[in-house]
Amino acid sequence: MNISKNSKLRNFHQAKWDEEVIFELNTSGERGILVPEVEPEIKALVGDGLSVIPENMLREDPPALPEVAQMRVLKHFLRLSQQNLGADLNIDIGQGTCTVKYNPKINEVLAASPRAYALHPAQAESTVQGALQIMYELDLFLREVSGLDRFTLQPSSGSHAILTMASIIRKYHETRGEGSQRDEIITTIFSHPSGAAAAAVKGYKIINVYYDKTGLPDIEALKKAVSKRTAALIITNPEDTGIYNPKIADFTRLVHEAGGLCGYDQANANGILGITRAREAGFDLCFFNLHKTFGTPHGCGGPASAGLGVTRELVDYLPVPLVEFDGKRYFLNWNVPHTIGKVRSFYGAFPVILKAYAWIMSLGGRGLKEVANIAVLNNNYLLKKITAIKGATSPFKAGKHRIEQVRYSWEELYKETGVTTHNIAYRLADFGFHLWSSHHPFLVPQPFTIEPTESYSKEELDEYLDGLRHVAEEARVEPETVKTAPHRSVVHKIDESTFDDPQKWAITWRAYLKKYGKPSK
Amino acid sequence: MDQKKKFIHPYIPNSVPSVKEKMLREVGVQNIDDLYEDIPEGLRLKTDLKLPEPKLSELELKRHVMKILDRNRSCEETVSFLGGGCAHHYVPAICDEITHRAEFLTAYAGEPYEDAGRFQALFEYESLMAELLDFDVVNVPTYDWGQAASTAIRMSGRITKRSKVLIADTISPDRLAIIKNYCHPVMKAELVRHHPETGHINLEDLCSKMAAEVAAVYFENPSYLGFIETQGQEVADIAHANGSLSVVGVDPISLGVLKPPSQYGADIACGDIQGLGNHMYYGGSLGGFIATRDEEKFVMEYPSRLFGITRTAVEGEWGFGDVAYSRTSFDRREKGKEFVGTAAALHGISAAVYLSLMGPRGMRELGQHIVQKTLYASKKMSGIKNVKLRFQSTPFKELVVDFSQTGKSAAEINRHLLDKGIFGGKDLSVEFSGLRDCALYCFTEMVTQADIDRLVRVLKDHLG
User: Fold this and answer.
1) How far apart are CA A227 and CA B23, in angstroms?
2) Which 3 state secondary structure label does DSSP give B350?
3) Could you tell me if B8 lies within 8 Å of chain A, comparing CB atoms?
4) Same domain? A329 vs A200
5) How many domains does chain B have?
6) In which element (H, E) is residue A449 found?
7) For residue B315, is pLDDT > 60?
8) CB of B412 within 8 Å of any CB in chain A?
9) Engineered SS bond to A274: which of A136, A293, A369, B325, CB 3.0-4.6 Å?
10) Residue B252 main-chain phi, psi, to 5 deg
């Protein structure tokens, strides 16, 4: 279907190099980089080094890594990078729940300082005062944003923070002699899958509270779920629907009355910075994803970092070490009475921590609130426009506003045309857009989740809207074009039939060669 | 924003008043507060967040942060002998070039179409690691070695339906703390003693602790304390005879010269990719790998993403995607295997670039270089009066240096070295009660003979 004259949609085509797999570039004898030889005196004293290695531990066959000259390696990975859309290039609002916002370049410059990247974690504290200061002050910032009393920066993602929360919750109840009695964690079905999964790793039975007809977690279901077995509630608010639960303080009260703790997954905090906090809603623990809300890049899926905060009563359970300041110097405190121990080696993802620190320092308190305000304005602008697209709906709470994102549905369009949300997502790739569906299970049929953040201009939001409109219309007039998409992305319809068959899946190149033989070019 | 100075923050385009008003009109509200109708008054923050005054211009921000960073002393300006799970290795220029590419740096969770590049790069990461490890399955990286070991152990528990792991007591204490927390209360950990002279696992102690509930034996090779364990096959045989698995943690930078765990009976290998093209970042740029054979019973227990290669509708075109997605918590929440989410993908891409550059010869030469440096240092350091090497077995890149007979504590010695511009080895006194006033010295390609000679000279002068 032709792009309409008034549309802002681009006549896009993604880079497609038809690039080989790196192993196909092998030419025996080529070198990508040379390693320095040891000094002659060393060689004279200790020989080749290999003869001392115990015979049964000396590698006989060298690893079958490809041999590729330097420029070709560079070109290979540059081409792969061009075959990837990053937020810097597209209008990355189609990955709801993930807060894909602008990642300021200055923060990359800061992190590229040798005084950031060339630090070893076991250096004397006197030589890392700057690193410790940044960690300590970020803790102070997060305390203010949440109202809680102390943060650890050790968790390496949101899911990891949930694992850490569940570990603290378990240790807390064990210390009070209720460890085995309190064996249930309650979460909601619209909270992130890790809210349930990471808590289950700690041996908890999971109770998923479903939603009522307004899309909010059902308070009656919560009342039935809480008991003497309740260890904690772990909940998102707003949930992935973008709806803020106004009864949240009742939720935390009910759980507290039953003797449980309340953990707040603040992955969805971008719309409520400076508006409302974990403390006032009654939470004992909370965490922020620094790689989402606080502007650090997602790196294709990490490195990430979560700041996990607790109330005063739970500080003694945090992982060690904590960063302290005595008024003169910063230091690591390993003496935390009931500590759960560790959840990550050393102290946390320092490059992410540094960039998040710089992001907050660039915005300040009023800036953070402006981030939330504009993220919410952008979202409600899109909500108004998307629900005006024939075939798209926003289940629950019709006509009301949402916080920072919305889980929409293409169900009506699907019923009309047979085109699925995945078909639409792949067709949008032809215009340089990404559209994500939803976490599983798909409670909203044919779902898609959009979170515009504060970063994109109205012009850009309009361009994305034109993309949605175009594809929805195309689903009616040329459904085959949508169903067979993408056509102008990097690759065409992928044969997914091999991925669930142990005889056919190939998770590495060597496994592919074993199962399929050498490919002919 | 700041009431004194009206301005538009460069990160927030729609703050422009005319745009904001237009959008509010479209939405049909008077002001932005009206959009927060669901948040009860009682939960609303009445005052502004009390954060420091922002550094609004990029220049001021840069000055502010760089001034703080200037309070650090880096391993580029001070010679460092620190290791122990994070080491100063050379990062090729092309690794930084690729990981700084905006397309990779700022991408997240696109589909295998518009994000084909990251799927392929991470598939290649898995494939390159698989050659190094001589295993057919490797995961998309998890957080770090500690997480990888923890998951490998939990995988063993599920595969064998058993609930205990035996762990060689020379393990990194940091890692042990991670494993213990991650396993509690589902699995228990018990330590296996080592031989004091060699550091090697005490096989008698291992055998005596073998029991019906043992899911796996876990040890590290080269160990945290630097020595090469030579009894890998014996350990695996003992484990297998008991129906248990052998899980081995390994420093991948050693695998150009050392046998990979798969070649001495390991069922699962794990470790960290920091040394493969990733800067140290104060221990903040780690990435954990897990590797196994390509058997369904192993593959279906991974919690991580596993990217596979396949074909597309167009002949000759490669496509990539998630293998056995139904294992994951993304698909099945608490019924999936452990959990999955954002972890350390970009570090995996850097490792892929690194291994592509190094090739088989580069890994061999680097391994050899590290062994030579370590041997040189061991000869020189053991020549210092009253300084001993703790273990008589062959080291790979780290040495436990025993200062307990010098009359000076390891901490005091490190303070002196710092005064002389040297980061001495990590003091092990706190971590191991049996290694009082011992320090773990690490020798990578980043230290020169002159650096080692100076270290020895300073130590000799100081210790008389």
Assistant:
1) 47
2) helix
3) no
4) yes
5) 3
6) strand A447-450
7) yes
8) no
9) A369
10) -65, -20
Of the pLDDT bands very low, low, confident and very high (cuts 50, 70, 90), residue A39 is: very high
Please judge whether B281 and A116 are an interchain contact, meaning their C-beta atoms are less than 8 angstroms apart: yes
Q: Look-up: residue for tokens 């899109």? A: A382
Which ipTM score applies to this complex?
A: 0.98
- Residue B1 has a pLDDT of 44
- Nearest residue of B to residue A92, measured between CA atoms: B107
Range B368-379 average pLDDT: 98
Confirm or reject contact between B278 and chain A (CB < 8 A).
no
- Chain A CB contacts of B66 below 8 Å: 110, 113
Contact yes or no for B282/A128 (Cβ under 8 A):
yes
Instruction: Flag whether residue B326 sits within 8 Å of chain A, measured between CB atoms.
Output: yes
Question: Could you list the residue range(s) of the whole structural domain that residue A55 is in?
Answer: 22-82
Instruction: Mark yes or no for CB contact B373/A42 under 8 Å.
Output: yes
What helix, strand, coil percent values describe chain A, rounded to 5?
Answer: 40, 10, 50
Contact A206 B121 (CB under 8 A): no
Cis peptide before B222 (omega within 30 of 0): yes
Whether the pLDDT of residue B3 is over 80: the answer is no
Q: Are residues B253 and B368 in the same domain?
A: no
Q: How far is A151 from chain B (nearest CA, A)?
A: 16
Shortest CA gap A477–chain B (Å): 23
pLDDT digits (tens, 9 = 90+) for B180-205: 999 999 999 999 999 999 999 999 99
The answer to whether B104 faces chain A, any CB pair under 8 Å, is yes
> Three-state DSSP class for A448?
strand
**Token pair for residue B178?**
């991670």
DSSP assignment letter at A202:
T
In angstroms, the Cα distances linking B170 to A75, A510, B207, B428 are 43, 33, 17, 12
* Mean pLDDT value across residues B397-424: 98
Sheet holding A261-265, edge to edge: A150-152, A306-310, A285-289, A261-265, A230-236, A184-188, A205-209
User: Has residue A358 got a pLDDT over 90?
Assistant: yes
Residue B319 predicted with pLDDT over 70:
yes
The three-class DSSP label of residue B271 is strand
Structural contact between residues A132 and A323, judged by C-beta atoms closer than 8 angstroms:
yes
B346 has pLDDT over 90: yes
Chain B environment of A342 (Cβ under 8 Å): 146, 174, 177-178, 181
Q: Does B320 touch chain A (CB under 8 A)?
A: yes
CA distance B313 to A449: 28
Pair (B331, B204) in one structural domain: yes
Same-domain status, A142 and A283? yes
State how far the Cα of A78 lies from the Cα of B349, in Å rounded to an integer: 12
With CA atoms as reference, report the closest residue to A8 among A447, A466, A321. A466
The whole-angstrom separation of Cα B180 and Cα B189 is 7
| Whether B417 and B297 share a structural domain | no
Using 50, 70 and 90 to split pLDDT, how confident is the model at A521?
Answer: low
Give me the residue from A90, A351, A509 closest to B281, CB to CB: A351
pLDDT score, position B7: 78
The pTM of the whole model exceeds 0.90: yes
Q: Is residue A481 part of a domain?
A: no
Question: Cβ atoms within 10 A of the Cβ of B324, count?
Answer: 20
Residue B138 parent element (H or E): strand B137-138
Structural domain containing residue B363: 79-88+359-463
pLDDT of residue B5: 60
Distance CA B110, CA B112 (A): 7
- Residue A9 in domain: no
Q: Do A363 and B54 touch (CB under 8 A)?
A: yes
Tell me the mean pLDDT in the region A198-209. 96
pLDDT confidence band for A313 (50 / 70 / 90):
very high
Q: What is the CATH number of the domain that holds B408?
A: 3.90.1150.10
Give phi and psi for A286, each to the nearest 5: -155, 165
